[in-house]
Specification:
Elements (H helix, E strand, L loop, with lengths): L10 E4 L5 H11 L6 H9 L4 E8 L2 E11 L2 E9 L8 H15 L4 E7 L3 H9 L3 E6 L10 E7 L16 H5 L1
Parallel strand pairs: 4-5
Antiparallel strand pairs: 1-2, 2-3, 3-4, 5-7, 6-7
Bound molecules: coenzyme A.
Length: 175
């Protein structure tokens, strides 16, 4: 069961400027085209449209996920887990928390793009009901790789892995 892998000290909260250096370290280790610091700063300060979340264990950042509200669409723009904590359901907890937040903000559709070679991420997104809807050729500047655009409806009964623990509404925890 997924819950068995969770530690008591685990939490998912809104990203703050205090988390920035830890987030950047994970970002630089995870992506060949990491986002610059200023981009994260802007996202953290945009409380109206941006949903930046961090997963923490014992107060340390072990992963993060970022999404934007665009009218009724929730766009998932970034998701990464610290290398040492991968395959421990942190990624799916973050994705679940993002999708819960999108639902709580009345979004009906979630979209994202993913490198076509990123099997780990594609498998995670499929698990949460995302389907490929389009291919954007040469989308990634660094390698010229194609992006797969994936989409899912956001519904209360959105498909989630069995035994998954519901996370309290993240915006509430942040107050
Ligand atoms: C993609 C990523 C966020 C997944 O996070 P994670 O915490 O390791 O994933 P989880 O443990 O929550 O795994 C959930 C599901 O994702 C899929 N998955 C995760 N890692 C996988 C891997 N290496 N190979 C195949 N499937 C994988 C599986 O379906 C898994 O379910 P299972 O454990 O029941 O098989 C993580 O690998 C990562 O940070 N990668 C680098 C950054 C990145 O590529 N981000 C995505 C950008 S679109």
């Amino acid at each position: 069961m997924d819950e068995m892998k969770l530690e008591k000290s685990d939490e998912i909260v809104r990203m703050s400027l205090h988390d920035l250096e830890d987030v950047l370290a994970i970002e630089r280790d995870s992506f060949s085209n990491p986002w610059p610091k200023d981009h994260f700063r802007q996202i953290i300060s945009d409380r109206k449209h941006a949903v930046p979340l961090v997963a923490k264990r014992d107060g340390e950042v072990i992963g993060y996920g970022i999404a934007w509200l665009k009218f009724e669409t929730f766009h998932i723009g970034n998701l990464a887990v610290h290398r040492s904590f991968r395959r421990r359901k942190i990624g799916q907890r973050l994705l679940r928390a993002l999708m819960e937040t999108g639902l709580g903000r009345d979004c009906r559709l979630a979209t994202l793009e993913v490198r076509e070679t990123n099997q780990a991420a594609i498998s995670l997104y499929r698990k949460f009901g995302f389907s490929p809807v389009a291919l954007q050729t040469g989308y990634y500047d660094d390698t010229g790789e194609n992006a797969i655009i994936m989409m899912t409806e956001l519904r209360q009964d959105v498909r989630t892995p069995p035994g998954y623990q519901m996370i309290p509404h993240v915006e509430e925890k942040d107050r």
